[in-house]
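Sat 14:20. Reprocessing the chain from the morning session after the first attempt stalled halfway. Input below, unchanged.
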Amino acid sequence: MKIEIRHVTTYRYATPARYAIQSLRLTPPSFDGQEVRTWTITAPGFETHISYRDALGNQVHLTSINTPHDGIVIEASGIVETEDRAGIVRGLAEVAPRRVFLRETPKTAPDKAIRDLAKSVSHGRIPKDPLDCLHSLMGAVGDAVAYEIGTSHTHTTAAEALAEGKGVCQDHAQVFISAARVIGIPARYVNGYFHAGTLAAAEAHHAWAEAWVDGLGWVGFDPANGMCPTERYVRLACGFDAASAAPIRGTQRGGANEDLDVRVEVEQQGAQQQ
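Finished this time. Tokens:
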């Protein structure tokens, strides 16, 4: 499947900012089942950006603006060709050892409810069949957290989302990751794009999880849609949680009352989502 993507992020300020620096994880990698055909990023200061791979293997572009400005527009666009690999992720430039993805973060720290959720699918022990256990966990998370837009925010933790019983793809992924780590399975957060078609959870900018399965490697799980990633998914970046995998992170001096607008279009054969 050839997927065309356009991702535009706009920041506006009530008063001009004097300086801004942005860390962009907006470049999808090529690996088995995902081939980037074309990809372009436009952003203020991008002509003189610094490019590097972070500790998790993500491509990062660091840009800065040193003159007064009342807004920033960052656009990433291109075409990515994908194949269904049953969620199995191979061919990435892996940097970090998988054991680092057992680490808790403030967003994924488990409480009693998450530990109970993990126990319900693992029966309190390391599973003999981790793949089956992870599929059960994916279903359990989807049942426990209803998909409902507008019920959470960027700072919502896994424990808070599970307690609320509703959230969006970010929340599903973080609850899954937290519970998988409780079981003893390395798990990580993935940011990307999704060509939803007729599926209910139709966020074009999407998030899911990957967990380590011996003999297979990293395998993707999307509790929001109850399935492993298919050719409809484009993987962008991974992290320990939503914050560390965010496509854009930055700071500025000045620039009061920031207003943020994000628009994502994902198209395939004339079908479009926003």
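Residues 2-82+247-273 form a domain with the Immunoglobulin-like fold (CATH 2.60.40.2250).
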